[in-house]
């Protein structure tokens, strides 16, 4: 399907709004929330379902507490700011949407909320129920409990995760820049806008700079990572400027704005998406070239192909899979603990049973049904 048709047929849409779009320096901007509510309301009138992923709690907290608090960067301090700011942020949304007769529902997520399958499904059910009720879910990271090792990192990633969670057709990432440029346009005046991306390869990744502006965290790099996660899940992505929220209408009126990322044709199915993006990996498994080839042909990972292990993990945990050059190539659920894998890696399958005495030994280290390759080209090629 072409870009225009993909957008027109998108019923379920996730819109991510960056901090820089909601505030002017250290000023609240009521009218920004109102214009966002107007555009989202227009989409709802068109029969679309919309989930908002919003940043801005830290900025709200900072503005509310005033000058004295601006300097500190430590995590508990930012969490405190977010705690003050989140309710203010929601008040802005509540008031703005009520002008259009719409209700909003707050969803705060932390990585552990999607690590466990039951919680992952609960989050999905709640969002689905809100959508069925005609309520606009407004999602942010639960900053209070999210510390460095266990946080989504930025709301770009969170928006891709939410898209994967609810099977969104389209993810719109609104930022202060018109889309992906060939180089950071703040630094290079000759940078040009990339209009369409069919596959997120190393060239595309190399274009994006990592530093965000002001209250922002991820920069363009995290938006590209988010686009990668979403397109792998079968969701189309647009990165566009949200300086004017009227752009939301433009997108659906087939005006070609921003950068459009085509979804992968064979998007990862629901349960595998949870393994790929929801679960927190407990370790790393390194494999040889032969095993990599087998995985690319849709086969399971067997003990002879394992050449290294890192981390302590139990049977059933999620691990990241790396090739011999230490390139991350996928994820899967292991049938062996790290202790067991250290003993059996490299062994032929029949030798494994002699060495390990455990009952219910599976032949595969990772069964193909529990394994996801995340290299787009190899996956689709
Ligand atoms: N190749 C690129 N194309 C566009 N923007 C880029 C690129 N590389 C870096 N950037 C920077 O990324 C910024 C957007 O990211 P960020 O400030 O984190 O936004 P947000 O607050 O919306 O999440 C832009 O202002 C831009 O300067
Ligand atoms: N949870 C944080 C989000 C921080 C963040 O990702 O910001 P941004 O890069 O502007 O999307 C907040 O609400 O301030």
Question: What are the key terms here?
Answer:
2 domains; 381 residues; 15 helices; alpha/beta; binds adenosine-5'-diphosphate; binds ligand VHF; eight-stranded mixed β-sheet; five-stranded mixed β-sheet; Carbamate kinase; Archaeosine Trna-guanine Transglycosylase, Chain: A, domain 4
Description:
Helices cover 39% and strands 18% of the residues. The protein is globular. The strands form three sheets. An eight-stranded mixed sheet has the order 5-6-4-1-7-9-10-8, sandwiched between helices. The protein has 15 helices and 15 strands. It folds into two domains: 3-272, Carbamate kinase; 281-380, Archaeosine Trna-guanine Transglycosylase, Chain: A, domain 4. A hairpin with a 2-residue loop joins strand 2 and strand 3 (27-28). With 381 residues, it is an alpha/beta fold. The structure holds adenosine-5'-diphosphate and the ligand N[C@@H](CCC(=O)OP(=O)(O)O)C(=O)O. The ligand N[C@@H](CCC(=O)OP(=O)(O)O)C(=O)O binds at residues 18-19, 55-59, 82, 140-141, 143, 154-155, 212, 215-218. It is found in: Cytoplasm. Keywords: Amino-acid biosynthesis, ATP-binding, Cytoplasm, Kinase, Nucleotide-binding, Proline biosynthesis, Transferase.
How many strands in all?
15
Dominant shape: globular
Please give the oligomerization state of what you see: single chain
Helix content: 25-40%
Ordered list of secondary-structure elements with their pairings:
Elements: H1 3-8, E1 12-17, E2 23-24, E3 27-28, H2 30-45, E4 49-54, H3 57-65, H4 75-98, E5 104-109, H5 111-115, H6 117-132, E6 136-141, H7 155-165, E7 170-175, E8 196-197, H8 202-207, H9 219-232, E9 236-241, H10 247-252, E10 259-261, H11 270-278, E11 283-287, H12 289-296, E12 306-310, E13 318-322, E14 328-333, H13 338-344, H14 349-355, E15 371-373, H15 376-380
Parallel strand pairs: 1-4, 1-7, 4-6, 5-6, 7-9, 8-10, 11-13
Antiparallel strand pairs: 2-3, 9-10, 11-12, 13-14, 14-15
EC number: 2.7.2.11
Domain PUA: 283-379
Subcellular location: Cytoplasm
